[in-house]
């Protein structure tokens, strides 16, 4: 299919029954077979369309997400959804030619003068299942990688953000033919049917629980999966690091999108003699960022009543089991459930039986554990499922190096939270319970490509020696290649 043939064939948001989904996938696969591997110009044109859509409709997306949330800071949407996705797209565009070029590889002496190379080929159709917390970025950043690598894609957004999902479906249908990119909307039942489709690759972003179901469904068709899951991302605060700077950066990470971020700092380890200064600094950091909370447009709502009640239950559980709970509420406002705002809350010295130490928090609650020696914090992290992110605050290079070497996590920011995710040239992905596979930047292109190894035989070569009848020459050659026994 040429670029011109892709001009404007708007379709409605796709209906989402199992048979409809199968038909949509079939149409994409047929188109892929007809088109083959799209050339550089076609891929660039598709990325350009996506870029124009994001730039033109940035405010529409901010409004749709705010409607779904009740209140979602416009700036959070522009930074973490629109800008991050555009930055990913522009990085892919500026490297696409280089990524698409075949890579020459070395051949062994005995195969000389043959030659070897790796070619990158589109896999075909990529399925993308996305969550509600960054509904635009987590649907479109995988799409950038899929399109750059020459694939087609079907997207299934979360049912918890219906306005955003409908807008995305409408705008993508206006920009792309349904056999290039299509969005199907619906709930868990649609997700289940979607995960059973024989895609060429499936990217799932969401909870670890559903990730297991998706992987099980995909295994029926041997569909390779990239699983971007959640978990409890720890912060280790070194003894040397200034409490005020640490508090400002940690609370920024914790309160952005009201903590509803997969890489949000989940819980914190502070040295036992630094707890009080940290709590003081945290109080000041919150007052600086959010002098008020309830009707402050910068402070985002919890997505729905269920999640609001879940967070309330975590705090009650911690209180009942003896933790000291500190609400950081600079203007002493009353929080009723109606606004679905949840106050930033510290839970000091939590114990293992508390829900805040067992579940991914996904909200503005920060449990703070204390340690005597940093080895205690490292051991704790290693005894728990592998986290999606880990944060270490220290100017002591030896300490930082030790934490990096002795823990394993999806990614790390040192002396900061979350910003490793915004680096276009870094891969993104979890490990163990926090996921598998990578995307973003080159790794996204690689994930959505078949790396095809190719050997080109030369006219003149020595490999006829490998054909029977085997003779003395091969015998002698093997003695050289393998070495003599003894
Ligand atoms: P979720 O797992 O409940 O839902 C994610 C998506 O899966 C939704 O579109 C949903 O409709 C669909 N789904 C539900 N059941 C399904 C099934 N049986 N088969 C197929 N699809 C199904 O997650 P959520 O509540 O939307 O998102 C929050 C979770 O996502 C948190 O755990 C968070 O840490 C994680 N997350 C991870 C990343 C990451 O990049 N690693 C990013 C954002 C969120």
Folded structure, characterized:
The protein starts with 17 loop residues before the first helix and ends with a helix. It is built from 15 helices and 16 strands. By secondary structure, the protein is α/β, with parallel strands linked by helices. The strands form three sheets. A seven-stranded mixed sheet has the order 10-11-12-9-8-13-14, with helices on both faces. The protein has helices at residues 18-35, 40-56, 58-69, 74-100, 137-148, 162-175, 188-195, 208-219, 243-255, 275-289, 305-320, 374-383, 397-406, 441-447, 472-482, and strands at residues 103-105, 115-122, 125-129, 152-156, 181-183, 201-205, 225-228, 233-237, 265-271, 324-327, 345-348, 365-371, 389-393, 411-414, 435-436, 449-456. Residues 1-5 and 7-12 have low confidence and may be disordered. The structure holds nicotinamide-adenine-dinucleotide.
Strand content: 15-25%
What hetero molecules are bound to the protein chains?
nicotinamide-adenine-dinucleotide
Spatial extent as radius of gyration: 26 Å
Q: Tell me about the biggest sheet?
A: 7 strands, mixed
Could you estimate the helical fraction of the residues in percent? 40-55%
How many separate helices? 15
Q: Give the number of DSSP strands.
A: 16
Global morphology: globular
Mean pLDDT: 95
Enumerate the spans where pLDDT stays under 50 for 5 or more consecutive residues. 1-5, 7-12
What structural category arises from helix and sheet content?
A: alpha/beta
**Strand order in the largest sheet:** 10-11-12-9-8-13-14
- The N- and C-terminal alpha carbons lie at a distance of 62 Å
